[in-house]
Write a structure and sequence with these properties.
The chain contains 18 helices and no strands.
Length: 311
């Protein structure tokens, strides 16, 4: 029996962006200024990081500039070799006593170094996350994918995208046979759906009758307040009645702003304050553009509130 993977928050896939308009001028300016990055930056009116990213994209390098006094040629070659192990800039900067700026320039001095460094750091990150998952799986044999994702969301998500074959193999090795653990539902889902749907109506009625400053009726507010957010978004098909109730009781932006302005107009009438846009804005705590937009509606509500007999 195959085990379905838990839902993982979607991460937008990075699409390749077109090169900037000034990209074609970079090789010419390098030939003109050499390794004087500041002159190239001034000519193109860009930052060093923009220039560095474009040079790496095009595979351009410049002659190496003068090294700091304490960094001998032997130590420099050792620094270059250490980048292939995937060590971070902070660790290398502290050990070799060099600035982050110099480490950024390494990829512009040595051909292909930045790509090899990035790949080495990626492999080191993969191994670190593998180790974290391996330790947890060894201590918790038979754990499901969903629980593993809840306990170690970062490593699970990274490895499931970077090395899914490794993760599948480890879970198959550490998991117990699915046939020995037949699944059964411990919750009456239809009853839970009916209870949640009736709670939506009660919640909306309580919010609408409240004398406090209105808050917008949204699905997220209801689900968070009733601790249903994760269950609802995990599989909405289990809550058809709840989804229908939320669709009928939740407000759009326009309806919510009208309700809030109506509440503010009634509050002004109750306090005997002459209605003005400024009073309405201060009472409702809404932006002036929304007050101007709903002024006619608020004024009509204010007049109706004045005509009602006071209790």
């Amino acid at each position: 029996m195959s085990v379905s993977r838990p839902p993982i928050p979607s991460i937008p896939v990075a699409t390749e962006t077109p090169p900037p308009r000034w990209a074609a001028q970079v090789p010419r300016l390098i030939g003109e200024f050499g390794g004087h990055f500041y002159s190239i930056q001034e000519a193109l009116n860009i930052s060093f990081h923009e220039l560095r990213a474009e040079m790496i994209r095009q595979g351009l390098t410049v002659p190496r500039s003068k090294l700091p006094r304490h960094l001998s040629e032997q130590r420099y070659q050792e620094l270059v070799a250490r980048t292939f192990t995937g060590e971070g800039k902070k660790e290398l900067g502290e050990e070799f006593e060099v600035s982050q700026f110099l480490l950024d320039k390494l990829g512009l001095w040595e051909p292909g170094l930045q790509h090899r460094w990035d790949e080495a750091r990626r492999q080191r990150t993969i191994q670190r996350n593998r180790d974290a998952l391996e330790v947890y799986l060894s201590a918790n044999p038979g754990i499901s994918r969903y629980l593993l994702f809840q306990e170690l969301p970062g490593p699970y998500e990274f490895i499931s995208r970077s090395d899914p074959e490794w993760l599948d193999a480890r879970l198959a090795r550490f998991s117990k046979s699915a046939e020995t653990r037949p699944r059964r539902s411990y919750v009456d889902r239809a009853q839970a759906d009916r209870i949640a749907a009736s709670a939506v109506a009660a919640w909306a009625a309580a919010e609408l009758s409240s004398a406090q400053r209105p808050r917008r009726l949204t699905a997220s507010r209801f689900l968070v307040n009733h601790r249903l957010l994760a269950r609802y978004h995990y599989d909405r098909t289990r809550f058809p009645l709840t989804a229908e109730a939320l669709a009928s009781h939740c407000e759009d932006g326009i309806s919510y702003r009208k309700r809030r302005l109506s509440w503010a107009a009634r509050a002004c009438a109750k306090e005997g304050v002459p209605l003005s846009k400024e009073h309405l804005r201060l009472t409702s705590k809404m932006e002036l553009r929304y007050v101007i937009e709903g002024w006619a509606h608020a004024a009509a509500e204010y007049e109706r509130a004045l005509k009602r007999p006071s209790r």
